[in-house]
Amino acid sequence: MKHEEVPARSGLLDAVRRVATDIAAAHADDVDAKARFPIETLAALREQGVLSASVPREFGGAGASLLEQAQACAVLAQSCGSSAMVLAMHYSQLACITRHGADSGFFRDWMRDTVRRQDLLASMTSENGTFGDTRSSICAVRVDGDRFALEKDATTGSYCAHADAILVTCRRDEQAAAGDQVLVMVRRQDCTLEQTTSWDTLGMRGTCSPGFKLAAGGDARQILPGSFADSSAQSMVPTSHILWAALWWGIAAGAVQRAAKFVRGQARQRPGSVPPTAQALAHLQVKLQAMKQNWVSAARDFDAAAEDREDLMGMGWALRLNNLKIASSEAAPQIVHGALQVVGIGGYKNDSPFSLGRHYRDALSGSLMISNERIAAKNASMLLVYKDAI
Ligand SMILES: Cc1cc2nc3c(=O)[nH]c(=O)nc-3n(C[C@H](O)[C@H](O)[C@H](O)COP(=O)(O)OP(=O)(O)OC[C@H]3O[C@@H](n4cnc5c(N)ncnc54)[C@H](O)[C@@H]3O)c2cc1C
Q1: Which positions fall inside the Acyl-CoA dehydrogenase/oxidase C-terminal domain (predicted)?
Q2: For the whole prediction, is pTM greater than 0.90?
Q3: In this structure, which of 141, 150, 223, 349 has its CB flanked by the most CB atoms within 10 Å?
């Protein structure tokens, strides 16, 4: 079965494939060169209704499964890694709302409205002083009557300046411990964002992720019901790790496609012979396939167990997701590196049709996006007590 042929209940994949080939591919180099937001791609995704694809059907959405969302991110990443990362981050925020907000009238209305509006959701978990630990906050939400107020000094806020709303982690109240967090939906029109750092990075330049000081207010019902401990473990972590793995695979697959085109060109120059580079390409396909099976199986298992919230809180599942994140973020740059060895100088040049610089630089972000060492440290302590094979 080809990658694109997994049954598409929602039509999401067809829509994203059109946007990827018609729009994202054409603008990816400019987005990268100027470190600018991929506005054309996001406008096209909105037009196709892609941003609300995972909203349940009962609220007017397409009810796309996580596997479909992952495939969409993988397809888009083959054309533009930054656009795919924006879509992946948006979907992981949306998952928190669809899976934890359905008992709230405010979030039910928001879901119905977003199908029409196609809101883009950003995430603000990082904070100056928490050192990359998403599960602790310094800032706290203050509720007064039916209103909330919140300030946060975030180290990294992808596309916050372009989003319609930001999901912000913070302590439940000013007395709460650092790990007693909630998730607050901050609407763009209800906040000020003061940019505190730049975003002139090696890769993922189109995600536009500088630091921001946020000051916000709003309706207290915009605080997502329940704890962030639950929405993080049951929704944000699984969906982000699976969607990121899918898009990192897409970046690697895009690089291998360029290398394959190069090798076929070599073969055409010497009909009847197999160029030596074809063998290196064959080895890359082995790695690519293994990488893909990892996120596809995790997405399938998540879809099968999506409502089994206890299972999603288990140590075995946490370890598996952490391993998926570490393995995929390590594999992607290695595969792109292999593609570069196949193509040679044509891949190293920025102005060649086989250029692999953007793929390489984008792929390098994976291991930093929640540090692999930080995740390995969590695994290490879990493995002291977890004895089953994973
Ligand atoms: C493309 C991109 C987009 C992003 N978008 C967002 C966003 O939209 N919203 C958001 O909130 N954040 C975002 N981030 C931030 C990201 O998810 C991390 O929170 C941030 O990169 C962590 O920063 P850090 O590397 O300085 O911190 P740390 O995680 O503290 O790592 C610093 C160093 O300490 C090491 N280290 C940390 N813990 C341990 C440990 N236990 N054992 C051993 N070594 C350890 C690490 O390996 C690293 O060398 C984004 C990052 C990237 C790359």
Answers
A1: 242-366
A2: yes
A3: 141
